[in-house]
Amino acid sequence: MKTCQFLLMLILCSAAPARAEEVDVAKVKEKYWAQGKESELGVVQNRRFASEGHWEADLFAGTIATDPFYSVSRVGGSLGYHPGPGLSVHAIGWKSSATDSDAYHQLRTEAPNADLYRNAPKAFYGLQANTELLYGKAALFGKMILYVDIFALAGAGMTSTESGSYLTPFAGIGQKIRLTDFALLHLDYRVMRFDETVRNSAGATRSRTNWSDALTLGLGILF
Q1: Which of 39, 86, 91, 180 is 20 to 30 Å from 162 by CA-CA measure?
Q2: How many angstroms separate the CA atoms of 216 and 73, rounded?
Q3: Has residue 35 been placed in a domain?
Q4: Number of domains in the chain
Q5: What is the pTM for the complete model shown?
């Protein structure tokens, strides 16, 4: 009988759940979170570089896909102001240089009498607003910390072409990399739309909607 009671107690003890181990939060913080220093526990930290209240001047170059029968490059600049955190407004403009594209030369070779309609861009001038989407840091080859802003952009202006000037709204996305306290590198992409008149070699015209893709690389200075 005693043997049965002993076996029953042994079974009940082995089936009983073990008491959950208590976690010492202070020790975990000390080990994994900056030695328990509350000021260093935040994942999102204050910016190292502040743009609010500064003017920004930029010089840039890029390409724009606007007409399949032209290869277009452009150079320009902008002047902007940062009225608040993550927000800036810019006056922007560029001059375009258009040359005959490979598609144009190929079509002229294969079909010399083809009726081609096209319209070369000359320039663009407008206003643009930027609003920040993301801010963070990135390591370059483990040797250098880069401070990066990713922003959305939108605006409108006038596209000047061989056939006239046209109202052009646009939107896009960009990225800025802070090189120093006052110097930055930026890369952006924008989609632009306008209704234009195109001509053929005989002078006949027609209307079309133009969707242009513009890619820009530039250098900016804050002051």
Answers
A1: 91
A2: 10
A3: no
A4: 1
A5: 0.76
Residues 61 and 189: their CA atoms lie apart, in Å, by 12
Q: CATH number, domain at 100? A: 2.40.160.20
Give 92: exposed, middle or buried? Use CB within 10 Å, 0-12, 13-18, 19+: buried
The pLDDT of residue 20 is above 50: no
List of E strands, the chain: 55-65, 70-84, 87-100, 121-140, 144-161, 164-178, 183-199, 205-222
Q: What is the mean pLDDT of the chain?
A: 85
With respect to residue 77, please indicate whether it lies within any of the assigned structural domains: yes
Whole-angstrom distance, CA of residue 91 vs CA of residue 144? 33
The tokens for 47 are: 């910016």
Is the residue at 207 inside a domain?
yes
Give the position of tokens 């328990």: 36
What is the end-to-end Cα distance of the chain in Å, rounded?
93
- Between CA 208 and CA 223 the distance in angstroms is 42
Q: Is 72 left (phi over 0), alpha (psi -120 to 50) or beta?
A: beta
Q: What percentage of the chain reaches a pLDDT higher than 90?
A: 62
Write out pLDDT tens, residues 28-69.
Answer: 555 554 444 545 444 445 566 678 899 999 999 999 999 999
The predicted-structure confidence for 105-116, as pLDDT tens digits, reads as follows 999 899 888 889
Read off the tokens for 220: 């900016």
- Residue 119 lies in domain: 55-222
